[in-house]
Structure formats: C-alpha cells, structure tokens
Amino acid sequence: MKLKFIGTGSAFNTKLGNTSAYIKENNILLLLDCGELTFDRILSLNLLSDVNEVHIAVTHTHPDHIGSLGSFIFYCHFIKKIKPIFHSANSDFIELLEIMGITEEHCEFDNCAFDPTVVIDSLDLGLFFMENNHVKELMTFGILLVKNPSLEEHEYIIYYSGDSCNIEDNILEAFVSGKINYLYQDT
Predict the structure, then answer these.
(1) Measuring CA to CA, how many Å separate 171 from each of 24, 120, 144, 184?
(2) CA 86 to CA 182: how far, in whole Å?
(3) Which of 8, 20, 93, 152 could in theory staple to 38 by disulfide, Cβ–Cβ 3.0 to 4.6 A?
(4) Distance between CA atoms of 94 and 147, rounded to whole angstroms?
(5) Coil, strand, or helix at residue 73?
(6) In this predicted model, what pLDDT tens digit does every residue of 86-141 receive, in sequence order?
(7) CA-CA distance, 115 to 117, in Å (whole number)?
(8) Domain 4-185 fold
C-alpha cells in the first residue's frame, strides 16, 4: 500500500495543488480529499484510466478539500460508469452533496456518521476517522489508514490529516513508537 499525493499546497499554494492523496491498487482508487484543483489533476494524471471501483473519504468541507468533489463524482458516474462509494464519519457531507445534486443514484453513501470505522474489503484497508481541531465552525477529521485491519498486528498504518491545529497526543505517541509508519499533517 502506497499513499501518493495529488497536491500538497493546502488552500493557497495553487502551484502545488490542494492537499489530496490517493491509494491505487488492482483497479481500485481511494481518494482522500478533493479540493478545487484536484479533479483537473486527476484527469491530467490519468488516474481513472483503468479504475473500476472508486472510494472517497474527505476530512472536512472547506473548498480546498471538497471544491471539485461534485465534478469528480459526476465524472465517475456519467463518464466512467462507476458509482463511487463515499465514506465519512459526518452525515453533514451527505446533505452537502445532495445540495450539489448528488444522490444515491450517483454515489453510495457508506457508513456516514454511524461509526467512525470503515473497512474497504477490496483494498483490505481500514479507515478510522478521528475528530481533530481545525476551526470551530466545522467538524474536521484525520484519517488513520490501516492495512489488514482485521489482524491484531496491523501491517501498515498511515495518519492523514486534512487540516488541523494540532496532532492529538495518542497519534504522536503512536508515530514516535513506530505504530504509525507515516504521518501527514496539513496545517
């Protein structure tokens, strides 16, 4: 499992693109965040050429993290004939997508707000949404990605923060002790 970045420029460094990452294995794509510049970069990188399954997880609703999410979902649905699966720990995302005109016809809403844990069986990957502190107006999440989540000893763990004012102590301790292999902190 390898996490690759589409952009690392946060909101205002457009040369580096909005912060967004992905894992692509065996014709399956997991997209983390989809800011204003992300959809164009996905097309430029030809990331969807051989994909037949798409998963999306977002950290929060600032435009630099979801600005082209609607276009991406519609492209998957209408052009690629793929119904993406949207994973979140916050049901507010469903309402926002519905305001954009995205319904369950276009995208499957998996596990939104019922449990902060999602398992993507086809990738053998667990997503653990962890609330973090970014701005008081929005719920914001970091995402812990765990390879082989059903095993007691996980093989590979990444922490992806899509904006946060701090890193929780338990995440730092896990990183320092080697329980988290990689940590990406967008601030």
Answers:
(1) 25, 22, 9, 11
(2) 24
(3) 20
(4) 27
(5) helix
(6) 998 777 888 889 999 999 999 998 866 656 688 899 999 999 988 888 888 888 88
(7) 5
(8) Metallo-beta-lactamase; Chain A (3.60.15)
